[in-house]
Write a sequence for this structure.
């Protein structure tokens, strides 16, 4: 966790242990290739690349198949949570299959690893980092000296729910009470269920020993999940250590662009990667899949070079997208709209306003519309009498900045 770019060196030469945190079975969006693929494909690409380099890779990706959201949804549907979880996992596997993602070596589910979670919770209590109150087990955050080492956040930034059972409001549950109708398991402390953060500590150490090389997940997991996970792993065994943390945004970029980006950079430690590079990769992919590069632009020339490399590498790895070029272009445009926080109708509306302004020779307004959209990563192109749009690297308001300076 140096926050610097580093050469990747595995703990055991030739072998790599990689653990990817929870594919959440119930995200805000429906399970679909577009919403879950980035996480799967990004780390699939890591694995493929490491395998290609000759490493013996143990890739583990867990499913959180019991948590408050799944229980709430199952109750709402009057469905058994295990049936719901199985259904969601099946859909996830279908998506991964369509996109030719490599399956992890192990895909542990929380509900199949209760024994390991109980054992780690027990160790944590034994090491005086957790306490039992009325059958619930809480982690004592003040016993952990390095909080914030991954995220840079302080414990005061944790969202806490008031709970009179906790000694300190920032403590979190390792093992918690099940409400009536919720699933529970026998434990030394009562019939209850596990908290979230300890699950990955327990499953990761079970499959990869206490020291894994790469631990990854969505960027939203850095805080508090991975921060708390480091704390629980440390509390159970102080020698536990993750070599490199890798986090990705799994919302705003097309999986192809994530793969493309990953191929162009080294692993970074601990968490930061450049969205500017992802914007560049998105723009390059748009041209590649649009299939109409303009030879005379130096930028496009370099994109053609990138295309050759991307295709070569993807074909080595057997990962060329099974989707048509047109479908990929549409998906890249959808992602650009997500990043701009706009709907296509709004873009079309602004295009209409710009056309009208130009008709009225109000070029200051029409230029402003173009600049505002470009600042959000949407470039307008006048093709004959028509104006179309494409994703672009978001432009800064350079003209405006100059005006402000002068
Ligand atoms: Zn995790």
């Amino acid at each position: 966790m140096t926050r610097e770019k580093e050469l990747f060196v595995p703990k055991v030469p030739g072998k790599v242990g990689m653990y990817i945190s929870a594919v959440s079975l119930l995200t805000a969006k429906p399970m679909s290739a577009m919403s879950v693929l980035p996480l799967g494909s990004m780390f699939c690409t890591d694995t493929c690349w490491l395998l290609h380099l000759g490493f013996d890779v143990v890739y583990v990706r867990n499913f959180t198949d019991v948590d408050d959201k799944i229980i709430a949804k199952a109750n709402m549907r009057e469905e058994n949570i295990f049936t719901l979880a199985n259904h969601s996992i099946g859909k996830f596997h279908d998506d991964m299959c369509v996109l030719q993602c490599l399956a992890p070596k192990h895909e542990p589910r929380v509900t199949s690893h209760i024994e390991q979670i109980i054992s780690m919770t027990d160790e944590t209590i034994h090491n005086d980092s957790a306490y039992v109150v009325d059958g619930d087990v809480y982690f004592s955050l003040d016993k952990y000296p390095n909080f914030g080492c991954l995220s840079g956040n302080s414990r005061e930034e944790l969202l806490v729910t008031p709970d009179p059972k906790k000694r300190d409001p920032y403590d979190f549950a390792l093992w918690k009470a099940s409400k009536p109708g919720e699933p529970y398991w026998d434990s030394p402390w009562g019939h209850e269920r596990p908290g979230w953060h300890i699950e990955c500590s327990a499953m990761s150490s079970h499959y990869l020993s206490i020291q894994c090389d790469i631990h990854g997940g969505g960027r939203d997991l850095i805080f508090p999940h991975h921060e708390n996970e480091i704390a629980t792993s440390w509390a159970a065994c102080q020698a536990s250590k993750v070599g490199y943390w890798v986090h990705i945004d799994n919302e705003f970029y097309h999986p192809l662009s994530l793969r493309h980006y990953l191929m162009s950079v080294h692993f970074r430690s601990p968490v930061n990667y450049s969205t500017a590079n992802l914007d560049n990769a998105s723009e390059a992919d748009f041209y590649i899949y649009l299939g109409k590069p303009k030879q005379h632009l130096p930028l496009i020339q370099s994109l053609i070079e990138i295309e050759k490399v991307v295709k070569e590498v993807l074909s080595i790895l057997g990962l060329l997208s099974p989707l048509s070029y047109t479908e990929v272009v549409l998906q890249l445009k959808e992602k650009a709209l997500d990043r701009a926080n706009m709907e296509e109708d709004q873009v079309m509306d602004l295009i209409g306003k710009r056309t009208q302004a130009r008709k009225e020779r109000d070029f200051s307004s029409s230029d402003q519309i173009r600049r505002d959209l470009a600042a959000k990563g949407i470039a307008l192109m006048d093709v004959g009498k028509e104006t179309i749009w494409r994703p672009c690297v978001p432009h800064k308001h350079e003209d405006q900045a100059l005006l402000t300076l002068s």
Remarks:
- The chain has three domains: 15-128+146-153+196-248, 255-292+301-317, 325-391.
